[in-house]
Amino acid sequence: MEYSFWLVDPSLGAQIEQASKLLAGAAPKEIAELRDRMNAEAEESRLVSRSGSTATIRIRGALMPGASLAAYILGLSTTRYGDILAALAECREDDSVKQVVFDIDSGGGTVDGFIEVVDAIRACPKPMSVKSVYACSAAYGIAAATGGKIEATSRDAEFGSIGVAVTFIVLDEEVDITSTEAPKKRPNVSTEEGQAVVRERLDGYHALFVEAIAEGRGRTVDEVNEGFGRGAVMLASAAKAAGLIDKVPSRGARVAGTAAQAERRLAACAADTQSTPTGAEPARGESDDPTPPSAAGKTRKVMNEEELKAQHRALYDSIVEAAEKRGAEAAVAEERDRVGAHLALGEKSGDMKTALDAVKAGTAMTQTLMATYMAAGMNRSDREAHAGDSAAAEGALEGADTATEYEAEDEGDQAWASYQRRKNGEG
Predict the structure, then answer these.
(1) Do 197 and 332 sit in the same domain of this protein?
(2) Which residues, listed in sequence order, are joined to residue 110 by a DSSP beta bridge?
């Protein structure tokens, strides 16, 4: 049983799960081709852009230890922790860079890779700050670890979701067995004991996560645990009041620069209304930073279902086939349960006619049918009880009749014998 621990906003986690299921059973050849294309685009993308002595590191989408093919297929943005490390190294080694700004729009990501990024941020001597419209979980951890000012770029910006989570799908037929001295290696998460083992590990990651946030924000671990939302997502004003961020734009401040931002947006839309920059997704709010996004200006069109079907028919067919197979298997299991339930109750109650009629008609197990089976079972018990009483009574009567006839026959014989003796003068 393999699983990943996440520092992620639940809504983003749901998208990642959906994307992973989409590729189940896909053709290996199509997957290899898509992976090659994804890796080629990833190599061409850069997180760092420059404006004078300021370097901006742009973080978008789910934070992952490596490239995610499932996210690529659905057009979901991802940022690899390794690319963030490379961007930090570039900024650290370039003497012309005097300050670093993180531009963040991310709901978080995996635990794997997060601590390395935090350590690299701590090791970078350049002053840092953050501008963000969406920084939750691991993304907020990175923002806080910079130790600089965190500014919301919109009043509806979201921050927080501080915590670690993992999701399990428990299969009835799956059984894990460990060696005697390693019971915690495969915890049974359907039990309280197994959940306690997993939670112990979650708490260990949580401690590292909160420590990074506390150090960056100049707070104690207890203050972060108690006052930073306890896993909740906060809007900008609430996040500022709680101490998660430092600045929220006012309505007046939003007026300045709006025309320029709208002009840039219209220009981008005119270039390709269906495209998003590689490794990026449409921002949920506008940044006040006039610095244009990373010059990785190559765009990638997000495929819809029809385009996937037309361009990668084998992959599309394998995905549909896998989905249909899973649906058929579930339907067969459900029908087996239905038929088995009817036959079992029909046999126990003695009402096989009702059971067979329900099986043939495709009737589900309803409360009415349950009552019918119960009534039939009770009637069967009554009949069996009456039959037993009748058998006993008949046996007693038969015994009584036999004894009477036998005794009557003996007395008649005796009387006849006496008459014959008297007639013959024997008496």
Answers:
(1) no
(2) 6
